[in-house]
Design goal:
With 265 residues, the protein is mostly helical. Among the domains are: 71 residues, Conserved hypothetical protein from pyrococcus furiosus pfu- 392566-001, ParB domain; 48 residues, no CATH class. The chain contains twelve helices and three strands; from the N terminus they run ααββαβααααααααα. β1 and β2 form a beta hairpin. α5 crosses α7, α5 crosses α8 and α8 packs across α10.
Length: 265
Amino acid sequence: MSLRVNPEYAKLMPKMSDEEFAELKASIQAEGQHYPIVVNEDLEILDGHHRYRACVELSIEPDFEVRKFEDKLLERKFVIEVNLRRRHLTKFQLVELGVPLLEIEKALAKKRQMPSSTTDQRVDANFTLEATKPQFKKTEAVAKVAKKVGVSTRTFERGRKILEKASEEEKQRLREGKASITKVYRELIASEEAVAEAMSDMTETAISEARRKQNEKALAAFLKRLLENELFCPVCGNAMFECSQCHTPLSELVKPRREDEAFRA
């Protein structure tokens, strides 16, 4: 029988370094498999992807055992939890496994809240069964999963944000233990704050420019009305609107701007 690799399950598994895989391969060649590969009823590998790869490369028939599950959620949960128990992982890799585990826990909780029989569905609408109430809140679910994977709730939440926002390069550094979740998280927050501040400055600048143009247009319209209805002194006939020092008429002061759109508005 031929075993199969499920890409979804393989993606959940933290990758071994070349050195670690070489050691595993040498061990299997010298001593055989210490643990059988675990597969489901469709012969999809659930645990032992690296052992399977080593056996293939060594042309050795792999030893395996079949494990049955009630549904795919429990099967997927097993794939994650078996990796949590057996591998030396960085905190970020633990968070990476914890995120899909959190979704599984939520889905399982939702299934537990569903009526188990038609009798439950005939309960009076004004009566709430205790069994149909949510078994834990979102924060409780996060705390539960964080504890299971072996990190604090704060570290788990920070890791989730890094998974959503950080670059792949930063994530790889975290997987390899070359950076800490705290450091990358703070850099990420600082970057987001800088972007938010820049956007705020741009918005304020745009508003100020719009107000300046609005005021300029209003002033131009006012000056236009003054020119159209210019007043003269009834005694000497001189223009009433002129500079108090050089006595330049208002019409001369605004003449260079007569072609401006504001004057034609």
